[in-house]
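haha ok so turns out i had the wrong file open the whole time. this is the CORRECT one, sorry everyone. sequence first:
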Amino acid sequence: MLEPDARVIFGKNVRIHSRSANYVAIYLLIGCCFSPIAGATGFPRGTPSARHMARAGAVTATVDDPSAIYYNPAGLASTKGTEVLVGLTTRIPDTKYSPGSSADLSGFGAQAISNSPELLPHIFLSRSLSEKAFVGFGFYQPYSHRYQWEASSPEPDRRYEFVAYSFAPTVALKLNHNISVALGISIIPATLNITQPLAEIGAPATDLPSEGIMTLESSAFGVAATFGLQLEVLRHIKLGASFHSGVELSFTGDVDFEFERELTLDELSLVPNQVITDVSVPHVLSTGIAWEQGAFTIEVSGNILFWDTFNDTNLEFTPSTTLEITRNWHTTFTVQSGLEYRFQKIAGRLGAAWAASPVPSATLDWTTAAADELRLALGLGYDFSLLRTDVGYVGAIGATRAVPTNRALLEPKGGSFDDSWTHRFTLSIGIRL
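then structure:
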């Protein structure tokens, strides 16, 4: 840590205010923060509703409670009266990064990076206006990611915190006994906070010292749309589909630099003024087919994430400078399967999923943490008639991936992501009014 009397602090309100700040922000935002479904695709998305998380999210065709706002809004047409669903997910990640031989982190091995536990709340409301019309509102965190380097690392002053919230009003219609449709919007405020040593990312200008710490605090706002469809095509056979539109987030905020020595007036004048960049989350198409009979429900579903339009990132600075980072991500998918068995008032659930990463090996870097992922889920529920309680667990393991040394614009260079686990525990309580 720097001594208080040895540093000069300054900051300005800018659109992510410096070249060094932007390198960190963009690599984290695009590499780590904006995968709409799961950590395998670059960033862990929240999984509201213990009931549906315990089926690994395989509920597109059968979701029938207020959390349909998140999974498939057409499921609102299966709710009754007024329903409320509240809950909390605890996400405990364990991502390990092993530095390469060119990194100055010898002796720290695979413990160089650790993740902090996260608490992700969710609240959903639904109301049937008639036998044909339904409305709902949801509050949840579609994207959330916090991690920091372990205190035992050479430079513990590394912190990344990204949080996005969704406020989602939704309307659903039951066209007939077999077909339901829905439309919703998501109003998404987001924040990004980063602390990073300048020695790892470079000084904000070539003639400025590279010893110190950068702190970035920024925010963004976006709006997305959601469409849903559920239908019963044969007796006991249900189909479902939903579409979540992409959202563009333009971050603005403050950045402060803490240098180890006092700067001259000439050096202060070298700090870049502004940089502008927009980050887009891809469209997501989800489909599912389910068989329901008696006490059993079995569903297989899949998600397609349209990352193929994400070829590069352009950063426009003032004074006039443009940087381009090649990404060349591709469209990817998630496959999910889930089972539910009901015995009187008790329900048991199991699920499994496979999520493929959109990040090719050629453009992988140490900030991306994106690997193919296997998830296993289970859970229990009890129905008290007017009150329902559910608990769910998902354990996910990501494959090992090597980081090319030529892709590491930020230190440390090279290395690999080792097999890492992420644990999610969710408790949900549903109330029928």
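DSSP finds five helices and 25 strands in the chain.
again sry for the mixup
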